[in-house]
Amino acid sequence: MMKDDFLSDDDKIQEKFKQKTWNEIRSNDSWAIFKIMSEFVNGYESMGRIGPCVSIFGSARTKPDNKYYLLAEKIAYKISQAGYGVITGGGPGIMEAGNKGAHLGNGTSVGLNIDLPFEQHYNPYIDKDKNLSFDYFFVRKVMFVKYSQGFVVMPGGFGTLDELFEAVTLIQTKKIGKFPIILVGREFWSGLLDWIKAVIIEKENNANPEDMNLIKVVDTEDEVLEVLDTFYKKYNLSPNF
Length: 241
Description:
A seven-stranded parallel beta sheet has the order 4-3-2-1-5-6-7, with helices on both faces. It contains eight helices and seven strands, in the order ααβαβαββαβαβαβα. It is globular, with a radius of gyration of 19 Å. The chain is of the alpha/beta class. The longest helix is centred in the first third of the chain and has 29 residues. The protein has a single domain, classed as 3-Layer(aba) Sandwich (Rossmann fold). Strand 2, helix 4 and strand 3 form a beta-alpha-beta unit. Belongs to the LOG family.
């Protein structure tokens, strides 16, 4: 846990405006660079041994009796049975459901944890040698993107939306391969997608209509697997596990 985690919001603001000497700033920044580098090196070495997986994103707040938790568990089980590994954010809620489904399917179950002061704790369904922990969100996000063969996005909050739009942007700008992005739950996602089409694309012309083709929307575990299998058959590929 980092020093800032113990400060109140007002204290954090005061800390940012606190006058520091140039030597203090340079020293602090240098140590931060080394810490960031160490997280990247550890992440690359660990994930390089594991290999690419399918990432499952979703809310940490979803309870085990929620329909989306149960659906995420079924999805992870189904895709692990088909030979795909599963990466989640390693915490509770949808992340736990994803790791649980992969664990029950005897598949590879990876958790990329982020150290947070209140909400996050790793779930018990991650393979013991595949539980990674990060201080920096941006390092963790790089690991998701670099080692994902596909993205399954369950209902979630701001963090889930951040991960979704990160993946869409990187594919749209051709920074990563055109891997499938699968939104699960038409009822949950339809309002957002309607707004993107009506406002971002048609009214403001801030994106191209064909960008919507990057996203598939489904409701069942069978549809998720169908999208993944169709993608890999198109490119004559197979899961890495």
